[in-house]
Amino acid sequence: MLTKVFAALRTKGVKPSVVAAELGLTSEEMNRLLFGLTLTTVVGGGQKTAPTLTRVLKFLPWTGQRLFTLPG
User: Fold this and answer.
1) What is the dihedral of CA 32, 28, 2, 14, to 10 degrees?
2) What is the mean pLDDT of residues 15-37?
3) Is the confidence at residue 53, as pLDDT, over 80?
4) Is the per-residue pLDDT at 67 higher than 70?
5) H/E/C letters for each residue in the chain?
6) pLDDT grade for 58, boundaries at 50, 70 and 90
């Protein structure tokens, strides 16, 4: 996808160094960030991860006791 984007920009005379400058990056930084990306798969045999804990929010009745005092 990025290859297509940069190819389209190149046809309009926009070089990758110009894109990097617009993003506030050097060409080297942009190359490291963008072109080092690789799609990978993780071998796991289709195993599911352990179930996550479900958190429940409960409202407690007001006891009239303050737990903290706000400054000011």
Assistant:
1) 170
2) 86
3) no
4) no
5) CHHHHHHHHHHCCCCHHHHHHHCCCCHHHHHHHHCCCCCCCCCCCCCCCCCCCCCCCCCCCCCCCCCCCCCC
6) confident
